[in-house]
Structures are given as structure tokens and as C-alpha cells.
Amino acid sequence: MNKILTWIIVLIVIVAGFFVLSKKSVPTSTGPFKVGVILPLTGDAASYGEVMRNIYQLAIKEVNDAGGVNGNKIELIIEDGKCDGTGGASAAQKLVNVDKVKVILGGFCSSESLAAVPIVESAKVALFSSGSSNPGLTGKSRFFARNFPGDSAQGKVLANIAKSQGAKSIYILVEQTDYAKGIADALKSSFTNLGGTVVTEEFASDVTDLRQLVTKAKAANPDIFMMSVQTPTTGQKILKAMRDLSWKPKLFVNDVIPGDPATMSIYKDIMNGAYTAEVGSDPTNPIFKHALDAYKTTYVTDMSFQSYGQIVYDAPFIIRDAIKDVGYDGEKIADWLHKIKDWKGAAGSLTIGSDGDPLVGHRAEIIKDGKVEVLK
Questions:
Q1: In DSSP terms, which residues pair with 144 in a beta bridge?
Q2: Are 309 and 54 in contact (CB under 8 A)?
Q3: Which helix (H) or strand (E) holds 315?
Q4: Phi, psi at 124, each rounded to 5°
Q5: Mind listing the domains of the chain with CATH numbers?
Q6: How far from each other are the two terminal CA atoms of the chain, in whole angstroms?
Q7: For the purposes of burial, counting CB atoms within 10 Å of the CB of 14, is it exposed (0-12), middle (13-18) or buried (19 or more)?
Q8: Is 343 exposed, middle or buried (0-12, 13-18, 19+ CB in 10 A)?
């Protein structure tokens, strides 16, 4: 009888222990959970940074209106990363050391994230990007993950398009930023492996007149001319020079161009027939449709850069789920982000590998009459 009572007591202790452990994973804070955001809000990159800020704010309002995290709201603290390393590092330092956040959404630009990684790593803060695509971020840190694919995928798709078109040479005019150079390097590597030749010409972001560089590219007479730029503003400068020179080569553009309605409209003629590669969106996805409708209702305009926007919209909901599951703990959130499997959102189903990259890629597209079509 004593033995039976002893075993009953042991079982009670074990069950009680499991109950206590399970309770520890539930956030107990009564205040809002602070989530940092790093976006480019000044300079040319603000053209998409401001759109992404709108999307983050829209999504987090929906999260909070639905009860937040176990009744606690999420508070966004947004900092300008200026789309460069210095701005990204400064924003990360402020969010980590002053605001004491445990998770940051961003950076959006690759340079922002590359600079922020060592800062969050030292502070054990999770960094989750919905825009940084430089290949150097793949597997860079336990504390970094992204739901936007790396540029290696984009470069490979573009190289395959070039090969299918019978091209033997590509001339790339590339802006000196981590994002633009990442795409150019990936395209060069992939196309060279396919037997082609690639010439790259780099230029600084502060160059205002690109006519001379475009003239040089025209003289090279490549089978394909590719412009890899950080912002639509820079892209427009190149397209204007091409129009002024009456040069209409077989054109490739990186994914920041087709998302900008102004560029697609103003340079509709010169870009007709151009090729690109984007993360695809599904117009039949009810979550994506809801995001588009909610954006238009809230901001009285259509969402631009929708390829990025769908992924940005998902991020606050992902972070909400992470905090629900493991609590407001940077280290635990970072580990959780590396184990996401079949998470459903506006961008479809998301699975993230152990290297922090999503298991999705880019699709081949062609621009016709100012609109993007899937290349078949």
C-alpha cells in the first residue's frame, strides 16, 4: 500500500512539473511586446520603404485587433536604416540598447541586415527580414532568418532565361550596393557555368548621369543588357539614357523594377519585351487578396511592390505566432524561425531551412505593354 501511495505521489509531482514547464512558455508580461523595424525611409529607397512601413502597420493593427499575443498588444518601433550599412547598424544599436527589443523585422535592404547581424547576435535578439536577399546572409547567423529568398535563386532564373534565348554574352550595369551586386554576382556565376560570358560595370549610387556608362554598354554590343539597381529611381536614369540613345537591346531587369508603377508606365516602350524574375504571387490566395483590399481601403491607393508586399505582410503574423509559442525571448524566437514549416500566409506556404532561408524561389517573367506576365 505504501508503495502504491509513493508512486501516486511521484506521478502527481511529474504531472505538476509538466504543467509548470508548459506555463513558462506562455508570455506573462502585461505590457506590449516591442518589435523593432528597420526600413529605408530616406533617400531613393524610401519609394518602397514607405510602402513596406504602411504594410507593417496595417498587419500589426490586424494582429492587435484580433487580441495580439494572449491579450497583449505588439508595439512596432520603426527606425530608418537608410538602405546602407551605417544606417542599419545605427538603427539596430538603438533598437537593441535603448528600446530593449527582443526581435527586429528587417532590415529591408541587404546592407542594413548585413550590418545589423553582429549587433543582434551579440545581444541575442532575433532578426527577421522580408526583403534582404544578398546571398551572404544565407546561414550567416543563428539569429538571422528571412522569408524572402536569396539572390542566388534570382540569378539562376535569369541565367536560364538567357540560355533559352540563345544568348552567349551578358553586359551587366550594376549599382554598388549589396543587393544589386548580389544579383549581378549570382547571374554571372550561373551564366558562366552555362558556358556564357559576362562583363560587369559597377557604378556608385551617387552617380547622376549614367549616359556615358550606357553608351559604353551599347558599344559592347552584348546579346543581353542587364541593369541591376537598388531602386527604381536609379533604374529610371538608365532607362532614360537608353531612350536618349535610341538603344533597345534585349533587356533584363532585377525585381525592384517591375514592382514600381511609375517606372513601368514612364518607360513602357523601352521595357516592352524585357525579362525579369520575381517571387510569384497568387491572386486566388484569400489572404493575399485580403491584404491588397485592406491596403487600398486604408491608404486609398493600390499596394505597389506587391511581390515584396505579400512577404512583408506575413512577417508580423509570423512573429506573433513565435511569441505565442516560445515567449518574448530573442534566442527562442530565433530558433523558432529556423524551424518554420508549412506556415500559411499571403505569400503562400512558408518553410524555412536550417540556414535561415525560405524554401521558395523566383519565377521567370516577361514585361509586355507595361504589365508583367509569367514566362511560359
A1: 127
A2: no
A3: helix 306-326
A4: 60, 50
A5: 33-149+283-350 (3.40.50.2300), 152-278 (3.40.50.2300)
A6: 77
A7: exposed
A8: middle
Q: Is 174 exposed, middle or buried (0-12, 13-18, 19+ CB in 10 A)?
A: buried
Half-sphere exposure of 127 (CA within 13 A, CB side): 36
Longest dimension (CA), the chain: 98
Print burial letters for 179-195: b (CB count within 10 Å at least 16), e (below 16).
bbbbbbbbbbbbbeeee
pLDDT at 144 over 60: yes
What own/partner pairs with CB < 8 Å and gap ≥ 24 does 331-335 have? 331/124, 331/126, 331/143, 333/102, 333/103, 333/126, 334/124, 334/125, 334/126, 334/127, 334/142, 334/143, 334/144, 334/145, 335/142
Angle at alpha carbon of residue 179, lines to 229 and 139, rounded to 5°: 165
Q: Which three cell numbers stand for residue 263?
A: 517606372
- Paired sense of beta strands 251-253 and 343-345, if any: unpaired
Query: CB neighbours of 242 closer than 8 A, spacing ≥ 6?
Result: 214, 248, 249, 270
Using CA atoms, how far apart are residues 372 and 87, in angstroms rounded to an integer?
33
Q: What is the residue type of 367?
A: I
pLDDT digits (tens, 9 = 90+) for 230-287: 999 999 999 999 999 999 999 999 999 999 999 999 999 999 999 999 998 898 999 9
CA distance linking residue 262 with residue 49, whole number of Å: 16
How far apart (Å, rounded) are the C-alpha atoms in residues 108 and 322? 20
Q: What is the pTM of this model?
A: 0.87
Residue matched to cell numbers 505579400: 310
Number of neighbouring beta carbons within 10 Å of residue 311: 27
